[in-house]
């Protein structure tokens, strides 16, 4: 048989059209793109000069895309949850996970270029906004799709926290990104992220979503649509009301509630409640709601009943005023909690029309979900609850990072705190976080006698955790606090609220756009370099045919702060992507 | 779902073996034949997820107005709203449906008398959403005339856009950074990221960082190279960036639109959810944006692009549309259906039963029970040859393991789990499909059957067919051959009944009738060459009904 490539001849197509096709010369894939005549053509016809780069901020849930040089993204859209905090254990499952991720990322990126930005990827350099904890395999997938499938000329990976700082005209600051999966605090000095000082907590958007769902299941009210037969319009709503069926609380409904109904109230005046509860040293807001990942521990129960007893004794504990029975044992502490939150909320109850569950097709039309005002106002308390060493509050995460930075940088960073991320868009969030920062520094001394969280864990050493930060309080400034507290008179503090009024969620994108138009922005990886690495990888895979090598190898050319020495001869960082944030008491303040 | 066949595109992947059919990733690796392209140069199938796409023009999907690239370019300097229709096309800010221009209601007076109305209706005109009833009068956008809104509404919006606070702030930020970056660029010899071919692409921010770090930075100093000198550290370390003064800062107007006190109060007192604009309506703004639904503006219609598609490997054009918005025709179109056989699948037993069920009003339960576990079903594959040459086809079932079978474990349970839940039998010899020809050539189908093109194979085929009436060639007419296969479903099987099938077809690449080829490759004129092309497909037959359920359904019937 001949090896000459011959093609089956098509039949139905008029042959003329086929021969209009391109000249027969093959352009070698990879490095030759710049030389190809086609490249010149697209360059001439493109809408902008091709020097405008494509800026993509790909979150795990929300993507923002547009062109550099513009003040806002062209489009912002929700994606399916693309990656989480954990991966499949089995190799075969993980391979399938990788395949699915690649398929999804490829579909999204193709749509970004072809349907949203309407531009030719081969002539557009890309700035990819990179969150510091973006898993390397996800980054590898982006690079593989952008270079392999889309053939973009280069990708710059730009740290999201640094880009956010650019969007407020700075290159130094302590940036907290409160996103979906994590809240991440990262100090940056003179455009250089201090990755070893990065601190993170899972208290972020996804946790808030889960928490809201739990609160609504327990404390929301559901009114089924009135049945047309019995003329039930005359039946009072109170008797129609039921617990909220789980099916009603779809992801979309919860998301809608989170973004349109919720806000963050002022700090709870906890001292009054603590007197009532009789547990002055303990934060009574620790929630452990079903369905949460962590099973309630014995100590949670004992604490709950303790709370409940004292509350019932002193304040005439009243059951939530709904015809609801059979609260499980662990729900009773939630009742106490609900009562406390209720006392601290003046928000109105809201009604939301929802699709009834398929199993309850008795009535016609939509059902009604009643969202208690205190859930709207106090749902986000979960993000401000501290004291857990595995899940520090958002404020503690900032302060822990600040504790880690070199002493002489602390004041500079304390007066340039920037809050970004989708969750920071909640009305009231930033000013509340500001108060929590001040409160945490002020109260770390009084909480020295904090009882252990769990009986099986050692009692935390009695130390004044944030003592060394206390002198910084007058200088503390949250740059984008929209409603700053009264000024303290220091130069640093005067910066509070002085950042430009960009939305916290869009700051990384705006910074990316700025970096692109200033012809800067992160380590640029060219397609030539990527292709070379891919070729090497293929070679080594051929030589070593073992099964492990057949698997996708993460390419060494990808810039990755977790395994690359930082520029300027900084020390190599350990590979662990998420630094453990156990308070290192000895080192602090030394 | 009706039985169907989809085709695999390897998408330049190193491995040409498609994922097993039970994997989630399988479905996006297979495509209907009509969506696929064929690159003659590479002799390969291409699909919409691997072709490279180029924009060859823009048009408005609403008014079909062509946007010449010149006028788009003219907008470059202004940087305002390109990609948007500059005529009368607007989208509803609430539901993104197209807005129509409507006149005001005829002015009514309290005594019910209506004033005479002009032909086009009464001004002021406004934009109205027929779907959700939003209208632009709510946000104070109205017009005196129903046409030429480009001169009015667009101008209003344009003015709004030109003075958009985010654009102005953005320009100010650029002015703030530029001189700093120029200075930093001058000292860029320190830049550690400078690479061989990018000496003028130094990253100024990094350069700035490194020049700043070259000074003594307390705590970081020990990491920096020898340039370190003693520093000033009285007020803590500072960078060299001058302070930026925002044009509009976050706390101006008390933080309204950024979650400040006014927003919190608005939320606290909220009476109905619908007063709040949804996230979709607000979030593409990068700036402080009102939470209130009553503040949103109509959106200009985004343009669509006309796309050409090229082979990702050799750059040959696969499809190229005509340059007119109204046209759906293509100048070039290399679709795979012209190169590789079309395959349809049917299950006669199931189809018959479906037909009898159609008379009765039995619902989906009966429909679903058509394929039952523990039985065997014949199925038919009809292959249509698009080529002017006859072809020989060979079919093979791809070996597969069920999902989730853990490796290494070999106790009985997993052994069982590893066994495929069903077995597929296909004709194991090659069979012919006659050439495509114009319709008049098929007056006598018998002639086609007697055509001894593939003589040596024929005896074997007929023996095969005699042996088993279910499996083998069942029918040949014109350029279609129908072969039978059989699937035996295990007792405990459930889920989707689908399998990967490798199709290979051999054709004579040299044909005296093919003048184009003769011209292209005269040397092969008299050498008959056989060429084989293979591709993968997935055959979906339907959903298996587990035994218990099917039994109960049988009783009902
Ligand atoms: Zn493909
Ligand atoms: Zn239009
Ligand atoms: Zn509408
Ligand atoms: Zn090709």
UniProtKB/TrEMBL annotation, chain A:
Top-level taxon of origin: Eukaryota
> What is the recorded name of this protein?
Actin family
Annotated organism of origin: Vararia minispora EC-137
UniProtKB/TrEMBL annotation, chain B:
Source species, domain of life:
Eukaryota
Q: Please give the name of this protein.
A: Dynactin p62 family-domain-containing protein
């Amino acid at each position: 048989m001949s090896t000459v490539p011959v093609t089956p001849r098509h039949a139905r197509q008029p042959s003329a059209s086929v021969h209009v096709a391109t000249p027969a010369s093959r352009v070698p894939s990879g490095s030759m793109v710049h030389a190809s005549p086609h490249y010149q053509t697209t360059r001439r016809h493109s809408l902008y000069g091709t020097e405008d780069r494509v800026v993509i901020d790909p979150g795990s849930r929300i993507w923002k895309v547009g062109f550099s040089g513009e003040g806002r993204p062209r489009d912002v859209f929700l994606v399916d949850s693309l990656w989480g905090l954990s991966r499949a254990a089995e190799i075969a499952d993980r391979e399938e996970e990788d395949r699915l991720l690649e398929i999804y990322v490829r579909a999204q990126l193709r749509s970004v270029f072809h349907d949203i930005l309407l531009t030719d990827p081969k002539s557009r350099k890309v700035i990819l906004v990179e969150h510091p904890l973006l898993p390397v395999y996800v980054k590898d997938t982006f690079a593989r799709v952008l270079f392999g499938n889309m053939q973009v000329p280069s990708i710059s990976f730009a740290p999201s926290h640094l880009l956010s700082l650019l969007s407020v005209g700075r290159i130094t600051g302590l940036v907290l990104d409160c996103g979906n999966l994590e809240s991440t605090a990262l100090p940056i000095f003179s455009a250089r992220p201090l990755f070893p000082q990065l601190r993170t907590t899972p208290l972020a958007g996804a946790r808030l979503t889960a928490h809201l769902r739990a609160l609504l299941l327990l404390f929301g009210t559901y009114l089924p649509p009135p049945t047309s037969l019995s003329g039930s319009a005359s039946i009072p709503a109170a008797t129609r009301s039921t617990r909220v069926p789980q099916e009603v609380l779809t992801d979309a409904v919860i998301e809608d509630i989170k973004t349109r109904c919720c806000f963050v109230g002022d700090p709870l005046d906890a001292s009054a409640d603590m007197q009532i509860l009789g547990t002055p040293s303990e934060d009574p807001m620790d929630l452990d709601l079903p369905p949460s990942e962590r099973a309630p521990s014995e100590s949670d129960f004992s604490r709950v009943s303790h709370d409940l007893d004292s509350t019932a004794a002193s304040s005439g504990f009243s059951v939530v005023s709904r015809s609801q029975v059979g609260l499980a044992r662990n729900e009773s502490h939630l009742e106490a909690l609900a009562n406390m939150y209720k006392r601290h909320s003046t928000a109105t109850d809201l009604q939301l029309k929802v699709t009834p569950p398929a199993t309850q097709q008795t009535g016609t039309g939509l059902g009604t979900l009643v969202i208690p005002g205190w859930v709207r106002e106090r749902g986000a308390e979960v993000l401000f609850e501290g004291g857990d060493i595995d899940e520090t509050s958002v404020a503690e995460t900032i302060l822990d990072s600040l504790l880690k930075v070199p002493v002489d940088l602390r004041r500079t960073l304390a007066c340039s705190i920037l809050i970004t991320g989708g969750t920071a868009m909640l009305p009231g969030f930033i000013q509340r976080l500001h108060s929590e920062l001040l409160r945490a520094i002020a109260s770390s001394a009084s909480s020295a006698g904090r009882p252990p969280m769990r009986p099986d864990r050692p009692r935390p050493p009695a130390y004044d955790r944030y003592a060394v930060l206390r002198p910084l309080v007058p200088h503390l400034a949250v740059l984008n606090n929209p409603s700053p507290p009264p000024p303290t008179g220091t130069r640093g503090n005067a910066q509070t609220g002085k950042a430009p009024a960009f939305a916290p969620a869009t700051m990384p994108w705006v910074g990316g756009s700025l970096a692109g138009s200033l012809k800067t922005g992160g380590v640029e990886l060219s397609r030539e370099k990527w292709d070379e690495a891919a070729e090497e990888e293929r070679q080594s895979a051929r030589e070593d045919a073992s099964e492990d090598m057949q698997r996708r190898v993460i390419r060494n050319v990808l810039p990755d702060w977790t395994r690359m020495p930082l520029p300027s001869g900084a020390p190599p960082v350990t590979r662990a992507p998420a630094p453990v944030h156990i308070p290192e008491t000895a080192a602090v303040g030394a | 779902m009706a039985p169907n066949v989809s085709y695999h595109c390897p998408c330049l992947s190193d491995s040409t073996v498609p994922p097993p059919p039970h994997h989630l990733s399988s479905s996006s690796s297979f495509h209907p034949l009509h969506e696929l392209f064929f690159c003659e140069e590479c002799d390969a199938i291409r699909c919409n997820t691997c072709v490279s796409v180029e924009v060859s023009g823009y048009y408005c999907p609403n008014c079909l107005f062509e946007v010449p690239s010149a006028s788009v370019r003219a907008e470059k300097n202004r940087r305002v709203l390109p990609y948007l229709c500059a005529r009368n096309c607007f989208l509803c800010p609430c539901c993104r449906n197209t807005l129509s221009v409507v006149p005001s209601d005829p002015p009514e007076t309290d005594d019910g008398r209506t004033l005479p109305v002009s032909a086009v209706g009464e001004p002021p005109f406004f934009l109205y959403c027929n779907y959700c009833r939003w209208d632009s009068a709510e946000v104070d956008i109205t017009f005196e005339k129903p046409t030429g809104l480009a001169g009015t509404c667009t101008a209003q919006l344009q003015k709004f856009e030109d003075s958009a606070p985010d654009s102005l702030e953005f320009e100010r930020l650029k002015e703030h950074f530029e001189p700093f970056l120029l200075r930093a660029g001058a000292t860029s010899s320190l830049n550690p990221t400078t690479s061989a071919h990018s000496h003028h692409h130094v990253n100024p921010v990094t350069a700035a960082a490194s020049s700043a770090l070259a000074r003594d930075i307390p705590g970081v100093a020990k990491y920096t190279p020898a340039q370190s000198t003693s520093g000033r550290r009285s007020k803590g370390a500072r960078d060299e960036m001058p302070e930026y003064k925002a044009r509009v800062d976050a706390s101006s107007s008390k933080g309204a639109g950024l979650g400040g006190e006014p927003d919190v109060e608005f939320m606290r007192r909220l009476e109905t959810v619908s007063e709040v604009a949804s996230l979709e309506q607000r979030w593409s703004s990068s700036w402080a944006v009102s939470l209130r639904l009553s503040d949103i503006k109509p959106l200009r219609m985004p343009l669509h692009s006309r796309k050409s598609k090229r082979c990702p490997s050799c750059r040959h054009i696969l499809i190229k549309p005509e340059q007119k918005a109204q046209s759906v025709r293509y100048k070039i179109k290399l679709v795979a259906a012209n190169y590789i056989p079309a395959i349809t699948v049917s299950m006669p037993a199931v189809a018959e039963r479906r037909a009898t069920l159609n008379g009765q009003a039995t619902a989906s339960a009966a429909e679903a029970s058509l394929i039952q576990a523990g039985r065997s079903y014949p199925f038919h594959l009809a292959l249509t040859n698009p080529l002017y040459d006859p072809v020989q086809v060979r079919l093979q079932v791809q070996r597969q393991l069920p999902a989730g079978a853990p490796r290494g474990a070999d106790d009985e349970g997993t052994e069982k789990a590893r066994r495929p839940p069903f077995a597929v039998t296909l004709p194991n010899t090659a069979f012919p499909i006659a050439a495509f020809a114009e319709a008049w050539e098929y007056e006598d189908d018998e002639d086609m059957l007697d055509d001894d093109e593939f003589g040596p194979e024929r005896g074997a085929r007929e023996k095969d067919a005699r042996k088993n009436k279910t499996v083998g060639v069942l029918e040949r007419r014109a350029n279609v051959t129908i072969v039978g296969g059989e699937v035996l479903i295990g007792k405990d099987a459930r889920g989707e009944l689908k399998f990967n099938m490798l199709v290979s077809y051999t054709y004579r690449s040299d044909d005296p009738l093919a003048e184009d080829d003769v011209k292209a490759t005269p040397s092969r004129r008299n050498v008959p060459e056989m060429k084989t092309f293979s591709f993968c497909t997935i055959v979906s037959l339907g959903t298996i009904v587990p035994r218990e359920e099917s039994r109960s359904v049988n009783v009902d019937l």
